[in-house]
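haha ok so turns out i had the wrong file open the whole time. this is the CORRECT one, sorry everyone. sequence first:
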Amino acid sequence: MKNLLSISFILLVFISLSGCTKKTARQVRTDTLSSPAYVFYMLSDLNAGDIDVYVDNVLRGKITAPLAKKPGDCFDEHALVVTQKPGNYLLKAYSSGGKQWTANLSFNEGQCNYFEFKSDNTDDQAKCYESLEGTWRRANDARVPNSAGMIVEFANGKGIITSVPDGVDFYKKGMVKWVLFNSKNCRIYDLTTAGSHYNHFVHFPDANTFVINNEIMYVREN
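then structure:
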């Protein structure tokens, strides 16, 4: 009788532990789903070779082959899934065949977004817009720590800094950040922390986003 009770007790403990293990696994999966994420993939052979994917200048993975269909969720093992804290980040992707992609990525809490690499969204298909008129917010800290959130108002050919986040030492409200925007060759003179305006290339992933020198991103406020 004692042996029978011992065996029953052992079985009960085993079943309880097994149940806890399964519950823990489900909780981890749920937490991952709630994290902001982007799924990167391609659906056709772009003759581009392997694609290295960078988010804010950090290599996050590689795309090596097209998928048969769009990924179904953020757990697709055949796609590249990248998670980040909520916020705006700069995508730069380079293929071994010479193609490049640039985009503004908005990681939002609880959302899973998708980015497909295609032949019609490469950098050489992007256009240069004629005007920067309006208000622009710096979306990343590239080269200048804590500078994300800085506001620049562009009017009458100049971009004036109107707001500077705490922790930024060089840039001050009222400084002329940009001058001489040339829409024909997509270049602008940008004030750097070296104290001078340098002639840099400007890339427009879309009408409301532009990237200076392939790393400093601004998004339109209005």
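The chain has one helix and 15 strands.
again sry for the mixup
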